[in-house]
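Deviations from the work plan: none for this task. Representative record:
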Amino acid sequence: MNENKLYIIKVGGNIIDDATKLSTFLSSFSALKGKKILVHGGGKLATKLAADLSIPQQMVDGRRITDAETLKVVTMVYAGLINKQVVASLNALNAPSIGLSGADGNCITAHKRVHPSIDFGFVGDVDSVNTNLILSLLHMDLNIIIAPITQDKTGQLLNTNADTIAQEIAKAMAQHIPVTLVYSFEKKGVLQDVNDENSAIPMINRALFDQLKKDKAIFAGMIPKLDNAFAALQAGVEKVIIGDATELSALIEGKTGTAIC
Amino acid sequence: MNENKLYIIKVGGNIIDDATKLSTFLSSFSALKGKKILVHGGGKLATKLAADLSIPQQMVDGRRITDAETLKVVTMVYAGLINKQVVASLNALNAPSIGLSGADGNCITAHKRVHPSIDFGFVGDVDSVNTNLILSLLHMDLNIIIAPITQDKTGQLLNTNADTIAQEIAKAMAQHIPVTLVYSFEKKGVLQDVNDENSAIPMINRALFDQLKKDKAIFAGMIPKLDNAFAALQAGVEKVIIGDATELSALIEGKTGTAIC
């Protein structure tokens, strides 16, 4: 924990949806020393707003098919409601923060996903991260709070996976400053037994990951997170940690959670 | 039109609601030389979303009573949907832009309105503008696009009148850089005859304003705008112009619209 490190922390939708857990998380985020970027999702609130507006939602492999109306919903919920509530809460905790979507200052440029058989609609895959902008804002002693909405070069907004955004920012920033990437959510880490909250595996390397996958001893939803984690390490990120968002400082001190190495 | 001037341009809700007019406005905004801040409203879209969600809306003297649910709606529509669509469009026009609410970077701090008889709910009156943040971002050659949502010191978001925000930013920035403040909307300026689009009064000074008010020769909705304009001039703003958002460059060159002096 020092001033010459960058922490990039993804916080999951289940924490955003729970006022008490979110408040605990934001308090420890605000107390963490060093330069910080927070990437948030917010899935359930978007699903609820879409339902209230009678906009049918379709999920494929856990990814939201984003038609034009759904894009408006996620832009409003992620870049509007959640982002500004988080920013205002952190400011009140004396942790001055600025909220950005990928469109702001051309922070994250993406392209509409091309898939051989599925039309994901307005879903974006990241092309580039504006590290100059991010460095300038961090230098102004601002925490950066990122909503998972990006843009392409024609001005089209795109819905983009928050885990991937955290990973892409981590990889790009690792060229400039030592980066620790934290995937924080409602679980204690990567669990050996998905029904036992106390079975977090303290450390996973590539060989163990391959073994766990082979033995089907790992929750399917965790596999893309771990793929992301290994890709980040390979691209120069110093440390990747997965664990409970309400235990942020213990996670970063290595007292809990799963370290990927 | 030069690099050492700041243009603060408020664009009205009727322009935001009209895709063709908005596109014309954004093209001329992007072409305008100099440092630029855009403050947008977006009233009708918020009203429509509130109706779609069956959230009853109450207006008093043209101001929206903002209960907790309505605050969510305006935060989503102003700081989410409209702000990010405008930012992405300007980026695509090669005018790199960053979108902020008043919460971002503690840009605009406000307090919940105190009124002897009406409870406006979560409506904010501006206390201070973070000119350091704004100067730093302008120095990074970014246009700043402001959504009319502010925050108080406790982390409470507040709905705030966009005209007032434009005026408060103009007054604060005028201490640092020469400021031209433009109120742009769907009319040609302050009209002598509200039914005649071509009756814009080219110039209004304090004496003429008082006379127009006395004669009731001025549209009631225009009076707060003009009060704002005179307050801005008194606080050091160089020029205030009121006119048609689709004729932005002609407005700034003084070829059309109403100049307040």
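DSSP finds nine helices and 14 strands in chain B.
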